Amino acid sequence: MSTTEPAFQSCISPACKGTFAVSEILTGCPKCGNLLDINYNWDRLSVPNSLSEFESRWSTKNNPLDFSGVWRFRDLLPFAPEDKIVTIGEGQTILQKSEGIGKYVGMNFGQLYLQYEGLNPSGSFKDNGMTAASTHAHMVGAKIAACASTGNTSASLAVFASTTGLFQVLVFIGSGKIAYGKLSQALDYGAHTIQIEGDFDDALIRVREVCAQKNIYLCNSVNPFRLEGQKAIMYRVLEGLNWEVPDWIVVPGGNLGNSSAFGKAFVELKQLGLIDRIPRLAVINAAGADTLYRLYEEQGVRWNGGEYDQTAIDNYYAEMTAQKRRAKTLASAIEINRPVNLVKCLRALDDCNGVVRQVNDQEILNAKAIVGAGGFGCEPASAASVAGAKLLREQGVIGQDERVVCILTGHELKDPNITVGYHADDKENFEKQLGPYGVTDAPYANHPIAVENNLDSILDVLDSIE
Ligand code: F0G
After folding, report:
1. Ligand 1 pocket member 153 (CB < 6 A)
2. What is the mean pLDDT of residues 268-294?
3. Residue with CA closest to ligand 1 atom 11
């Protein structure tokens, strides 16, 4: 097709450069199999001259598109006609300056910010992407949508389907691999929920096969429309900073959709002259699911203008299979062996002068407790960003005077078992929940206080607190 269309799909491989219409349902390049982007002929579109122009939409919030924290920036993801946009009020999230957490990380006063994506309708950042994927599904008339999930994608897809009634939902999850808060959402919102033996990677392989055979619309992050929506998280970060660019964005890395979307957002904003520099990106793996860390930091695999070392990646996966090595972390959202957006993330790391780090489950849980004590709280995977920022400060990679934004990807209530396990005062519960992950200590625990049901005993305890 001609690429004079305002929006089109294109292969990320510079050697292939295949382009396809937005009306096609694709989850990979039909020519070479690589990942796809949504690209735009910006000169055929109307784009604001400055980011502050978006502020005019704050006063027209009764228009659902202006209320949405994604679609009020629709000029920056202009692939859909307005009457096809599917929105449920996603993206009402905040950027909060956080002194206590900043101190924990080792930042100077006023330099650490948290972007609370847990405040989305389904309780995670996924709603930013799902509004865009649902919009595309609506544009192409899909009747069934599906995903594999560690829990949040499925909760998000299920809430979009149940709220709008536009399609049925099929979700694939690994058995025993999903936090109860998330599973309860998929079930409650009426998604057909298929639990297969195995983990997220197994579920993703199966859902892709099923979608291909049965013509079902796939909503995992190989869907390039979904990632267009996730760009809006960065627009809101800039909005929260009065349109100033921070020095660092720190984000947990699982399937690497977010980090890929963030890189694309900043590159486009720079190309459009809407920002003058691109922040640095830090992607934080859980130590038990550290494919990106190993390939990027240890083996030095780089985007390299699209000529990345596919053999190194293939060999890494072959070794993983041979050794029967599977991801294991209590941050179940990011318990992923083979991140599908790996090469897009390499591109983002290149564009954003990025770094990758890994943090262990103990570090994740300590950071999670600090986040909880200092704000709205988050689920374990999200706290990897704060633990990662702390590590990067200790290593001197992040300077104490730099402005850092950690993305808190999911709500505190997604995974209460882990939280209660950390704060438990009985060793048995602590060990049951956390022991299998090598967590031995809870230095920031806030133990529940067991007291006899007797006023004097209760008053004695209160005296000891005051
Ligand atoms: N944080 C949370 C809370 C997540 O749910 C996920 C991914 C990530 C971080 C990782 O983001 O994949 O963009 O690097 N959850 C997916 C799911 C896999 O199925 O809900 P990513």
Report:
1. yes
2. 98
3. 254
